[in-house]
Every structure is written in structure tokens, then in C-alpha cells.
Amino acid sequence: MRVICDLHIHSRFSGGSSNNITLHRIANNCKIKGINVIGTGDACYPIWLNELESNLEEYSEGIYFLPEVPEVKFILQTEVELIWKKDNQTKKVHFIVLIPSFNVLYELEEYLAKYGNLKKDGRPKIYLSAENFILDLKNIDFFIEIIPAHIFTPFYGVLGSMSNFRSLHDAVGNGIHYINAVESGLSADPKMIRYISELNNMSVISNSDAHSISFHRIGREATVFELNTLEFKDLINAIHGNNIIMTYEFKPSEGKYFWDGHRAQRHSNKKEFSCHPKENVKFCPICRNNITKGVLSRLYQLKDQNPILIDKAQYIVPLLHLISKVCGGTEYDKDNIAIYQKIVRSNNGEFNVWNGNGILKDIPVKILQVIDKIKKNRYSIIPGYDGVYGKLELDNYRELKNF
Question: Are 91 and 187 contained in the same domain?
């Protein structure tokens, strides 16, 4: 059974999230896009938890669904921000948590409430070290799965430049024995992670970290598993055993933290600055403050090998974003959304547009030509930096190598 999963999203209760997020909209848009299993996001937030419990029914052990949209399955999931002191420095790191049942979720909620205010934000701030957090959650239920989120992201990735850990073990201590996977994040891909020997035995998953249910956000990255049956433990075992068929990926340079730099909003004159890490710029030439060191810069510091395992990745550009680039307007224009929905419904999901070998249906010629260009990697990205997405260039191809 081939299962396309997006295991990291947010509800409308997380900071920066759309107010339009509901379970029904999540499920309907996943059905159209072609996502089989989606994280619930923010499962410990009391109001959202009540909605989950009131609306979801159990499909199998640890897997849930909405009766109105039975094709799409849900897994109980949250992201937490851990905050603690180490070596006189404040550390702030994000982790994904996958939860095997509502009963375990209630225990988890009770435990986390001791260390943070769960009613303040869908992604709670928990004042606890990563090591204690991991060990304590495993004592609550061994099948809780804990995954470092977007591990190279500067501000909250466990190996990001602002976290300033020397290694994953440095960050999580004895908790490392219970870390079986890491999330690449939009500004990295599995190959980049394989430059670090400490992570050799860990699976690499990719998720959207979506804060809205828009088609160009949800499922913009995803992980494909081969499962015999769809149950929570089957999915977790597939993660542990690296039984991953492939991941769908942004080009890392399209992510918001690939290069070093300062976005325009940091400067009174609204000028922007970005650079490749090999330029070794420490201070912003505009404001003279420290620049935000991106994912690539951090990887240059940490890499200690050439990749010995190459995970299969399919690089994509969210199709609705591509349509807006070709047809004009934005991803929120009704005409562009109508074109998108017709294409994905005719081809049984967006991922078949990128991965299918058959004849694509109901795609205008000018869009089909651009899809072909993406598949052949004949496109460029002006790299993202400091919270600014990279910019897609369809007509000015130039090869940009990561290393």
C-alpha cells in the first residue's frame, strides 16, 4: 500500500496560521491534492483537541478519519517548542510529536501542562530540556514518536545556527537513543542531511509545516511509505526502518532560510541583503548587525562526510504556485484555483502530475510545458534567506550547486 503522508501541519490556533483551518477543509483539500495521511497539528491545544475528539472516528489503531471524507486519514500530531538553558545559553528547539491514541494524548497533555501554558498557542512553549522531554514522553508511552523538526532552520532547528549545538547528541543527550528520524524542512533535503555521519542511521522525512490549507502550502513536501496495513504502529515501524519510497521536496534554495542574509524588513531603508555562505560575511553591510546564518552555512560547519546513503527525492514546485506564475495573478485567484482543481482531479492528485509516467490529462499546453521544465530540472531559484522564500525563475536557467 503506497501512502503519501504529510505528518506536520498546524491548526488555526498556532501563531501565523490561517483562521480558516478546520478539519473538514483539511480533509477536503487533502483529498483533492492526493494526500492519504495528514497530521492533525496542535493536538494538545484544548479547543482543537475537543474538535478532534468530537469529529474524528477511528479507522484503525491510532489512525482516524472524518466520516464525511473517509478517503483521508489523520494521525494525532503536534509540534512543541522546547526552551531550556545549556552552558548559560537559552536554547529554543522545535520537535514533532506523533501520538498513538487519544488516551495517550490526554496523558501527554496533562504532563506538558506542568511545563507550559497549553492554552496560549497551538504550538506550546514547554520549559524543559530536550533530553528530559524525550525520556519522559517515552515513559508515558513508548510508542510516542519524537522527531526533530526542520533540523537546520536557523532559529528553531536542533542543528540550526541559532541553537548552536555541536551535534544532535549535544542537544538531546541520552534522548538520542529514541530519535529514529529527522525532518529536513523546506530549506534542506535528504541529501544534505546525509553529509552528517551522526544521522546515517536515521530516516529523513519531509512535511509541509503548513500554517494554512491552501493547495500550495499543505503537502508542499510529503513522504511516501510502503505499508502492508495502515495503522499507527505500521507507520512508525516504517519510519524506524527507513521504509520510505521517496519524498517530495522543495528545492532547498526555494526555502526561506537557505542562504545567509537580512530581509528588507530589518532595515529602515527597506534594502535587502543575501549571500552565499562561502562569501563568509558576518555582519550585514546595511545595518552592521549579525546576519542570519542560513541552512547551507550551517551545513558547511557541520558536514563530516560525503553522503553514503542517497534517499530518493522528487523535486517539485507546488502546482498552484506554478499555475499562478504561468497565468498571472496569485495562488488565491479563483481562476487559478479552478485550473488547479481540474488538473488534479483529472490526474487523481497533484503528486501524479509530478511522478506519473502516463499521459497527463486536462492540462493547458503552456502549463504542461512548464511542468516538463520542472521535471527536467531546467529552472532556477533565486535563493531564499532570513524568512524570505526563494524566487522561481522559469526563463533564466542557471545551475546552482549546493556544494
Answer: yes
- Mind listing the pLDDT tens digit for each residue in 319-363? 999 999 999 999 999 999 999 999 999 999 999 999 866 788 999
Q: Would you say the pTM of this structure is higher than 0.90?
A: yes
pLDDT tens digits for range 105-118: 999 999 999 999 99
Q: Which of 277, 298, 312, 278 is nearest to 191 (CA)?
A: 312
DSSP string across 168-195: HHHHHGGGGGG--EEE--TT--HHHHTT
- Give the domain range for residue 340: 319-378
Q: Sign of the CA dihedral 232, 55, 50, 30?
A: positive
Give the confidence band of 395 by pLDDT, cuts at 50, 70, 90. confident
Q: How many CA atoms lie within 13 A of 259 on its CB side?
A: 25
- The beta strand positions in 54-211, using DSSP E, are 57-60, 63-66, 69-86, 89-99, 125-126, 145-148, 181-183, 203-205
Q: What one-letter code names the amino acid at 133?
A: F
